[in-house]
Amino acid sequence: MIKVIRSVVAVVAGLMLTAGAVAGSNSVESINERLKPSGSVCIQGEECAAASGASASAASGPRSGEDIVGSYCAACHSVGVLGAPKIGDAADWAPRLDNGFDTVLANAIGGLNAMPPRGTCGDCTDEEISAAVEFMTK
Ligand code: HEC
Known about the structure:
58% of the residues lie in helices and 0% in strands. By secondary structure, it is an all-alpha fold. The protein has two domains: 2-60, no CATH class; 65-137, Cytochrome Bc1 Complex, Chain D, domain 2. Heme C binds at residues 68, 72-73, 75-77, 81-85, 96, 103-104, 107-108, 112-116, 118-121, 129, 132-133.
């Protein structure tokens, strides 16, 4: 019975979608909204992808180094809490960068003394941490 009702809704919505193409995006959105419970509307590139966490971040792309630093790293690295090298302070970074960017990056990912692994950004990809380190060391 519910299936029948859903089919009717889908058909009606489909008709509205066809007939009302000129009615503006609002009505298309509301139709999509109503179609969702049928479980068959998941158009590539549309928001239903956000329902599955993993692909959500993939879909929105990597966050910029600046964003990561602002959200996760600045708390310690802006003023140098616990001896953290300061953002954009060449003198703080030079001796560290002497070990090579890869080493510095590995320490950012794995943690180093009071520096927590991934700087507390648990869901940051290696790529995002790398962008953040690049941003901080410049
Ligand atoms: C809780 C404070 C804290 C947060 C948050 C934090 N850091 Fe750090 N970080 C430190 C401290 C302290 C050090 C210095 C560690 C040492 O040399 O003993 C450090 C060192 C580093 C280094 C130098 C590693 C090396 O090889 O010398 C990098 C790179 C780094 N942090 C990146 C980041 C990034 C990227 C973030 C954000 C995603 C972040 N940190 C967030 C405290 C923090």
